[in-house]
Amino acid sequence: MSSKSHPPLMKKHSQTDLISRLKSRKILGVGGEDDDGEVHRSKISQMLGNELKFAVREPIGLRVWILVSAVGFTLMAITALVFPNQLYELVFEEELSTTSISVRLYGAALLSLALIMWNGLYTAEKVIIQWTLLSEACYFAVQFLVTCVTLIEIGILPSAAMLLLLSRVLFFVVTVAYYYHLGRKPKKI
Fold first, then answer.
1. Burial letters 40-68, b for 16+ CB under 10 A, else e
2. Greatest extent of the chain over all pairs of C-alpha atoms, in Å
3. I want to staple 128 with a disulfide (CB 3.0 to 4.6 A). Which of 18, 117, 123, 149 is the partner?
4. Is the pTM of this model over 0.70?
5. For residue range 102-125, what is the model confidence (pLDDT) as tens digits?
6. From CA 162, how far away is CA 7, in angstroms rounded?
């Protein structure tokens, strides 16, 4: 029996073979652009995504606005809970004829909204900040409507109530502007 000697096996090093590497990356689906135009260097980064995509690009002054809102809601809630008659007299310039429970319930609702504001201040999640701003905008819109109806029913137009209405319109506009700006899609860099 004759034994033929086979030539030595040549191992192919895919790490050094550029064409083989590119073919492997193409099969894995990495290295090329995805639908968003991003180039992923590995399957892991493709699966997890780019962390810059999830970073919230906050408008200038957003955190300050949420802080001012949280403090304002908290102070107004405490005032409505502790001094309901005085708060009503300040706004409508007449004495509260019925029980003060409605003003205290208003204070309780404001305190709940204040807790949402405080939570929105310390979060980094875009969705929670958006819901915080939307809650605030809804509150300002509803308070504006309720105050208008109440003023029409009692038939007077006190200056404190007019100031309250104007401030609610201003606060509503600022809040909606932040909500709109936060909801816009960021431009690709």
1. beeeeebeeeeeeeeeeeeeeebeebbee
2. 120
3. 123
4. no
5. 888 989 999 999 999 999 998 888
6. 98
